[in-house]
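Task: fold both queries, return tokens.
Query 1:
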Amino acid sequence: MKRFSGLFLLSFVLVLLTGCPKRPLVPPVDTAKLDAEQAIASASEAINRAREVGADVTEAEGLLQEARSAFDAEDYATAISKAREAEESANRARELALAKAREEEEAEMEVVEEEEAVEKAAKIYVVGTWARDRDCLWNIAKKSSIYGDPWKWKRIYKANTDKIKDPDLIYPGQRLTIP
């Protein structure tokens, strides 16, 4: 037991005298190099994401090229700075492209909504003469610009009961609402 405690005490004293190594596990140059590699990879990914949405990434690509040149020259601080600028530029370009796409989509939706509103609005059909147009409710409903189905003549009649007393009698110049 004395021998064990003596050995323990000797080990403890040696550790106190020598201490733990204070040097970093990775040399500072290697840390800067790793940081630069990571920054360049991150910027490259940001540029690829921006390209996917159709963004203009020429500025970001130029900055990334400068970062790679600085990296090759072992100027890691400049490489990191340029890579971060490239990433920010790519992210801005991506956001601009997405905003533009959203605006275009909204404008397209407005046009579609206007077209739907026009389609839903009641059409007015002016009855022509029998001799020239052969207009009767059956033939009006049969026209491709109206329903394209003569059996739907009752829709026209029901929408115009205030103007049409007898569905067999319509008159030239009469303005019929087409629902």
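Query 1 returned. Query 2:
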Amino acid sequence: MPVRVTLRTGKAFSPYRILLKRLIEMPDGDSLILCSGYIQETDPKNPRSYNILSDELLASISKGCAKGSITTIAGKVENRQWLEFYKNFIYGLQHAGVRVKPYLARRKNWHAKIAIRLKQNKPIAALIGSSNLTGPAYGINRPNWNFEGDVLIWSDATYNSNFKQRFDNDTLIGDMTLILDPETSQPSEEEQLKLIYQDVMHSGIEPFEYFEA
């Protein structure tokens, strides 16, 4: 199983941003699951506010999900402000013609940040780590940024060309191939991605009925 491990160490470069966009735009895929504790679509009508969709994310989602859909899950919505940001995010996707299936993880203390690329409802790659869909994690050259660590895993070496491309800068990045021990009883690479997918979708999330599915 190929794996890429990243650590953000400066404001001008976000490995999470690059790998998330590559994941979403994978040609061999049609749909996406996007989970985050916080989603920052502050005020699309105010160009001075941070809106993650206008920061190249909407273009990637529109391209990568043109033949499928995106399932979104937000968890930290007890604060009314973040609930409104999530609504703005869903509205922005719907307005752009993206088919959206929005969910909430109310009272679950949901803080998981997971993006899963699907091909005909089968998971083929996943990005898992500490990065929320917010300016400090995804944005670049902003005054506020976070150290973030994320791990990208994919099921098939045929996707290496998509994910092992060098970054534009000299940031060190971990490229590993994990070899499953044949003498140990454990799920295959594809089965492990499927288990992650199933765990997410059966974690007690509920449809966000405020929006049309």
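Both queries returned. Flag for query 2: The chain has one domain: 2-207.
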